[in-house]
Recover the amino acids of this structure.
């Protein structure tokens, strides 16, 4: 599968607001759940209030929690994923916004889908 956001890509983000609504498939930028202070970019696979089954484990999402996954890293078969399987659901309060438009490199310019 072709990675939506390859390394070193630059993109615009639609900032999160109180009434922002996210759907499965959206790519979110959020503050790391752990105290690292970094920003993380992952795809939404579970919405608030849903019960989802991932890798044989059931996850229950609260009223303002999102379950996010990274795109599979096929070049690293034993790679441990750093996504909701590792750190749990992302609270809405940690969301910075939705990735929207790639502007660099020029060969990849366009709307993110």
């Amino acid at each position: 599968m072709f990675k939506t956001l390859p390394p070193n890509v630059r993109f615009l983000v639609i900032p999160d607001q109180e009434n922002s609504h996210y759907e499965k498939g959206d790519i979110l930028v959020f503050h790391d759940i752990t105290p690292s202070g970094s920003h993380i970019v992952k795809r939404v696979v579970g919405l608030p209030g849903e019960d989802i089954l991932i890798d044989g484990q059931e996850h229950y999402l609260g009223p303002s929690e999102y379950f996010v996954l990274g795109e599979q890293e096929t070049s690293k078969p034993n790679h441990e994923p750093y996504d909701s399987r590792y750190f749990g659901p992302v609270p809405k309060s940690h969301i910075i916004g939705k990735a929207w438009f790639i502007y660099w490199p020029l060969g990849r310019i366009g709307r993110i889908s």
The chain has a mean pLDDT of 87. Residues 84-87 form the longest helix (4 residues). The domain at 10-111 is CATH 2.10.109.10 (Umud Fragment, subunit A). The radius of gyration is 14 Å.
